[in-house]
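Duplicate of earlier report; DUF4142 domain-containing protein input re-posted below.
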Amino acid sequence: MKRPFITLFSTAIVLLAATSCNSNDSVKEAQKTNEVKADSATANTEMGKVEKTGMDYDSEFLTKAASGGMLEVELGKQVVARAITPQAKEFAQQMVDDHSKGNAELMALATKKNITLPTTLGDDHQKVLKEVTEEKGVKMDQKYLKEMLEDHEEDVKEYTDASIKAADPDIKAFAAKTVPMLKMHLDMVTKMKPAVDAAK
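Output:
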């Protein structure tokens, strides 16, 4: 009678081990998938190597952008529901509205270009989500705007770079089209942050 229990227990341990092994960064996993696609799509010639380098840059940009866009929406929804200050609530709602549209465009573009995107937040973005949502009250609002300021400074730079460096003209155009929205968000959070920082 003890044998089935031992078998079940062993199975549970194996499943737990498998689950813990699978907790890889979703952005890196998507990038690995795209590397395999790029390898099979380009011949191993000098021209093929140039094409692959361009494809690598484009797919890395889109995979990171996808995770970042998901963070803006997911975190925005949580802050809208819990924010104390009107500024944090307003900014969070803007993030949900604008980045939901941007994410849909990005997904359509990636599908068209046969680029695999992460379906969950990458490790870095997961960490930001956790750190902000662990705070309570005004401290959460302040932490949120601090993270959004840093995030949008980085986004403006990365999207501007992609609008110049991307190999694919459609990806280049998508990046260029998104830069003004990101700059508007950066301007918005820069103006709102002092009032939220002063809140008690």
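Residues 25-198 form a domain with the Ferritin fold (CATH 1.20.1260.10).

Merging into the original ticket.
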